[in-house]
Amino acid sequence: RWVPTDNIHLTLKFLGDVSPANVEMLSQMLSVEVSQHATFALEFGGLGTFPNPRRPRVIWIGIQAPAELEALQHGIEAAAATLGYPSEERPFSPHLTIGRVKQNVSSTGVQKIRTALEQTKIGALGTAQVGAVHLFKSDLKPSGAVYTKLFSAPLKI
Q1: Catalytic residues
Q2: Are strands 55-64 and 132-141 parallel, antiparallel or unpaired?
Q3: Structure pTM?
Q4: Cβ neighbours for 117, distance < 8 A, ≥ 6 positions apart
Q5: pLDDT in tens, the chain (157 residues)
């Protein structure tokens, strides 16, 4: 299933279930943390899968992570930990999810996907300027996730 273009995003920190009472606290944390970082550009390109090409579950476009992105993500991760949100075990791997493979796909289907991905070469796609970090709520529906922006924190100019 392809991700609708309006839903493509870069996740800096997945929080899981958040009570409505904690949204204000998270918004304040984001304001403080994000305001310490200047705007920066991201470069997009390349194609890959998680967890691996033999068992693709997520199809993604890569992001060249500048030091500013790494610092921003690390700062948000650390600040969220002080609020009691568990730290991510896996290393940060910036990407844009563009597709998801159903878990019950046949081995023939997996082979078709793997072959198509191996035959698809994606070079540089372009750049985007990052000027803010957003806090989103996601609601999972049978048709896919529905995202609602709850808060935006601008980076310093």
Answers
A1: 9, 95
A2: unpaired
A3: 0.91
A4: 47, 49, 53, 56, 59
A5: 899 999 999 999 999 999 988 999 999 999 999 999 999 999 999 999 999 888 899 999 999 989 999 999 999 999 999 999 999 999 999 999 999 998 889 999 999 999 999 999 999 999 999 999 999 999 998 888 899 999 999 999 8
